[in-house]
Amino acid sequence: MKKPPPKASKHAEGLVPAHGGYRKLKSFQVAQLCFDVTVRFCERYVDRRDRTHDQMVQAARSGAQNIAEGSKASGTSKKTELKLTNVARASLEELRLDYEDYLRQRRLEQWSREDPRRDELIARRCATADAVADWVEELHGRNGQRGHCGPSTKSSRSTKSTKSTRSTYRELAANAALVLIAVACSLLDRQIASLAAAFVENGGFTERLYRVRTKRRGHGPPQ
């Protein structure tokens, strides 16, 4: 007796496409790095009794978590994926403002867009908070050496110059975090634009369901 052909799975027919691969997304990887760096920064430089401590950690966590949640939801709701990815982007923007406020309120330097240290950190392609911390320590050492170059003097002008030349760890760490946040935000901007275009072009779960059912009923190939 001839066996009937096996039924095609929903995944095979495209009803629920492959989804949930957020760990491979560059946006998730950088957002998660921002979270790890922020946790370390807050533990060292922000008083736990300060509300800003928890707000920064939660904003950083939200950035990574919403990318992951959106990716998992994308199988049945592209609209939800788009919404949650945008929430991740907004959370990282909130985090960016917190770091900028931290620097401004303490009269610490915020690097300009043209600052070569930004490109240097990006070129390092740090994958862990430890790697970022190592770079900050290296940069701090270079700044300290520049601050001590030249003849020794006890004048107040020289002392002031030395202090202004040597950046503090917290200043460098905050700016490093801002660089990583900028990278994550740029990646998310492109990801959101891509998701929006795909949603407009292909629709979501309801449209896929209609196409699959139409095909199964023999009314023609899916469009």
Radius of gyration: 25 Å
N- to C-terminal separation?
36 Å
**H-E order:** HHHHHHHHH
Number of helical stretches of at least 4 residues: 9
Percentage of helical residues?
A: over 70%
Largest sheet features = none
Instruction: Output the CATH class name.
Output: Mainly Alpha
Characterize the overall form. elongated
Might you state the CATH topology name?
A: de novo design (two linked rop proteins)
Mean pLDDT: 81
Strand content: under 5%
How many distinct domains? Answer: 1
**Which ranges are low-confidence, i.e. pLDDT below 50, for 5 or more consecutive residues?**
8-13, 147-166
CATH superfamily, by name, is 23S rRNA-intervening sequence
Describe the structure.
The chain is mainly α and 223 residues long. The protein has a single domain, classed as de novo design (two linked rop proteins) (Up-down Bundle). It is 71% helix and 0% strand. It is built from nine helices and no strands. It has helices at residues 10-13, 26-45, 51-73, 78-105, 116-124, 129-147, 156-165, 169-202, 205-216. Helix 4 (78-105) runs antiparallel to helix 8, helix 6 (129-147) packs antiparallel against helix 7 and helix 6 packs across helix 8. The two termini are 36 Å apart. Residues 8-13 and 147-166 have low confidence and may be disordered.
Could you write a compact summary of the structure shown?
The chain is mainly alpha-helical. Helix content is 71%, strand content 0%.
